[in-house]
Write a structure and sequence with these properties.
This protein is α+β, with helices and mostly antiparallel strands. 21% of the residues lie in helices and 30% in strands. It is globular and about 50 Å long. It starts with 9 loop residues before the first strand and ends in a 9-residue tail after the last strand.
Length: 96
């Protein structure tokens, strides 16, 4: 038996990519290949919306990847430019 703290935890994030949606699986693979510490194999896409200048996703992301995203300044390289990622329902303190 194991405790509940042994189960992985997930956070919802929003991610914005500069290129239009072609293949979300490909975007997530690029993120994994190009950014050390991001294991996108367990990420889930809740919502996908194309916008005039790109695509916005709502994702479920594991806590290990959250730590890696923090190290990357919430701007991982995506292979098609730089993605912008932020936690939902959590305000990040900006550096002054």
């Amino acid at each position: 038996m194991m405790g509940l703290d042994a189960l992985p935890t997930y956070n919802r994030v929003t991610a914005w990519f500069t290129d239009p949606e072609e293949d979300m699986g490909q975007y997530l693979q690029w993120l994994r290949w190009l950014n050390q510490g991001l294991d996108t194999g367990h990420w889930r896409v809740y919502k996908c919306r194309e916008e005039p200048n790109g695509v916005r996703l709502v994702l479920s992301v594991d806590s290990t990847s959250i730590t890696a995203l923090e190290r990357l300044g919430w701007r991982p390289f995506s292979g098609v430019g730089q993605a912008i990622v932020s936690l939902l329902d959590v305000r990040l303190e900006r550096k002054k």
